[in-house]
Amino acid sequence: MTDVKTVVLDGIWRNNPALVQLLGLCPLLAITTTLVNGLALGLATTAVLVVTNMTVSLIRGALIPAARILVFVLIIASLVTIVDLLANAYLYELHQTLGLFIPLIVTNCAILAQAEVFASRHSIGVAALGGLSTGAGFTMALIALGGCREIVGQGTLFAGLEQLLGDAAAGIVINLPVDGILVAALPPGAFFGLALLIALKNYLDRDKHGVSTTATQRAQAEKHLP
Length: 226
Hints:
This protein is globular. It has a two-stranded antiparallel sheet. It has 226 residues and is mainly α. The protein has one domain. The protein contains eleven helices and two strands; from the N terminus they run αααααααβαβααα.
């Protein structure tokens, strides 16, 4: 029986797709100029992850091994197209802001990896939970990076929230008493910010012996190599 706590912790923290597996970095680095942009892309990716995992789990018994990757990509592409059309219809301004990065969800290897390694081997409930936790982990990384870049680069927080929640959220934006540092809003700022987030996670993962959890797991795995 799959341990629910293990599935959740793996997706959100231990095997975070952005901070550990380093998957989906193209949209992660490009779109996180603000917290809202990161949140919107994270929600879209999570929706695709959950539905993809559920669909793959349902049809896993009928999958032909030689065609499974093709089927996975077809499912992902179909769902991303639906999300893209819905965003264009109901969140037009946000859709214009995110632009090409919604269709690029298709190329996010974290979704394909979940379908191949996890969803195709578990029941629909566990598969949905795995997709949700992985999507939540990816969204948290997007929000953290987008929020930090927005604060440091623009001196604001929650700018553009009305694009996601409607006009009622227009006044929620926080204007900080700083002008911002331009480099944080530029592409180099994304790389610097991601590096700091990864360093922070590795620091928090350090065990009592001063060795990171990731390094410990790697060392253990190397002992079993022939």
